[in-house]
User: What shape does this take?
Amino acid sequence: MSLFKDMLKGDESLFRNEMALDFEFLPKLLPYRETEQRHLATCIEPLLQGRNGRNLFIYGASGIGKTAAMKYVFRDLEEETDDVIPIYVNCWQKNTTFKILLEICDQLGYKLTHNKRTEELFEVVKQIVNKKSAVFAFDEIDKVEDYGFLYSLTEEIFKKSIFMITNHKDWITELDQRIKSRLMPDMLEFRKYNLAETKSILKDRGDHAFIPGCWDDNAFDVVSVRAFELEDVRPGMHLMRESGMAAESKSSKKIMIDHVKEAFSKLEEFTIKPKAALDDDTQTVLQLVKDNSGSKIGDLFKLYQQQGGVAVYKTFQRKIRKLSDGKFLTINTIKGGAEGTTSIIKYHTTKKLTDF
Ligand SMILES: Nc1ncnc2c1ncn2[C@@H]1O[C@H](COP(=O)(O)OP(=O)(O)OP(=O)(O)O)[C@@H](O)[C@H]1O
Ligand SMILES: [Mg+2]
Assistant: This one.
């Protein structure tokens, strides 16, 4: 018996550039986001003319090209000029003013950060950036725990654009008024892709990733319809990769429906985990939302406190957002009601397959 006898040989692999299915892979073109990219560029344009730039608040659902569009514009900017410094920070990883300033120093090439305090780090950033101009992109901005860096940047950096990216439109409405009135950002919504767009994006990735003609048309349709239903490109790419591997493991030279089905079952496995992975307090919050679906966030917080919850309101809000990211619930922000702006929280009954 040979375990490897029937396997496809290296030169028979269905993949020719598997990296094209990585979420971080930046395609040459970003179709269907031309208008959005132009909007980003327009905010930066004054910097190229030696004036102050405009700030922008970018929001929209998960997996629909916000980060990709930002990085794409930065790539173009870097090719165009050395006078405007692009700085991209993922606030999920760097979620405090101190960590963000360390990261900015690092990107500016300043290494002597050891033992420096927050104010000293900001002084370094100020010295370097104020000689030129800069675009700051803070991705996943809702994950930051304090806003000191925003305050300092708006006050003391002369020529800049600040971009803030998030899934949560309501983040900006809740932002401290003193910072909001300094930022005065444009608002830009990324809408979800329709079926034809989802299909074409995945087709393009597939053309890079696989050898020509290895996808059965029906099998590919099933993948794109699924990604469209989930309103997220990422599970589409994930399914394509898994389907390709399933086909290879069967030594099939074509990727058929059966291989996609096998990939689906793996995607399902992923969906069970997150709920169990939530910490106890977040589980409590979720249960509370489930029992009181459709309530205002303030009322939920009161109930949470009555039940002995110890988190402060900000932390409670963050837990709600985290649950929304995992698609356990939805947040609907209502502006200008009798009590001003409030958020209505609804429990998600149908858990989606993106929860991996
Ligand atoms: N128009 C497009 N053309 C090609 N690829 C795209 C397009 N839109 C999204 N993608 C791809 O889909 C994946 C998800 O996109 P991206 O990371 O930009 O999502 P996002 O909107 O930032 O989501 P999140 O809010 O979860 O961070 C990336 O691999 C990206 O390259
Ligand atoms: Mg993103």
